[in-house]
Amino acid sequence: MSHRSWGPHARAGAGLAALLGVGLAAGCGAEAADSGAPLPTESATESAAALSGDTSCKHVGGVVMLLPEPAGKCTISTKLPGPTYVGNPDPTGNPACFRVFVFGSLNGSGYAGLTAEALQFGGTATPATLHEWPAPPTLPTRLVLTARSALKFSGGSIQTRDTNLIDTATGTITEQIMITGGDGAYAGATGALVILGDSLGKPAPITGRICVPRS
Asked: Taking the model in full, what pTM does it have?
């Protein structure tokens, strides 16, 4: 990939989509299992919360990995039309649409792509930049990327909107994934997941909760 400033942004954005993907093929599954990422466990407090209210929630965790789609192909744009996808490749020639895989408490397959979302004061951008004190106003301290994902696994599928944060000083990547809906067993799904690290071509830990309305 390019070493220009967009390079790491596109890689991180990829992570965004990487939530609940297909159970990795034997080789990938073995790599994920060897990553050393512990599967998260649900506390008694979380278990009690999941039993209350009008939703039933399940803690999920494992590892996620994504692979770029070939140039000119962006499956997510047909799986989840509506958002403005940046294209594949992006304007600087880096991949921006991905196939995603997850291995852990849920297995399935999915697609994701970077999007250009509206900014508060007009226009769109991916990445947007944060300029945090005490850094000089011209020096970005964190990059913000957005994406959408459509993910399918046993019993149904979910759709998500994703936000990636990259610290420019350390290269640290974290991603928040908000579940916006689903079908089948996941009709009306809500919840959130978090990816810790860069998942492009290698496994990164993922953890969170998926909630569905009680029948």
From this structure: 0.76
Task: Tell me how far CA of residue 168 lies from CA of 14, 101, 134, 139, 165, in angstroms.
Answer: 17, 26, 14, 9, 9
Q: Longest Cα pair distance anywhere in the chain, in angstroms? A: 54
Side-chain-facing half-sphere of 44: CA atoms under 13 Å = 0
Residue 183: other Cβ atoms inside 10 A: 14
**What percentage of the chain exceeds 70 in pLDDT?**
76
What are the CA-CA distances from residue 177 to residues 30, 41, 136, 137, 161 (Å)?
25, 19, 30, 29, 6
Residues of the chain with pLDDT under 70: 1-52
Calpha distance 184→83 (Å, rounded): 23
Our CA angle for 3, 145, 193, nearest 5°, is 120
What's the CA gap between 82 and 178, in Å, rounded?
Answer: 17
Strands 108-115 vs 142-153: parallel, antiparallel or unpaired: antiparallel
Q: What's the per-residue H, E or C state across 138-176?
A: CCCCEEEEEEEEEEEECCEEEEEEEEEEEECCCCCEEEE
Residue 171 phi/psi, 5-degree rounding, is 80, 5
Query: Prior bond to 89 cis, omega within 30?
Result: yes
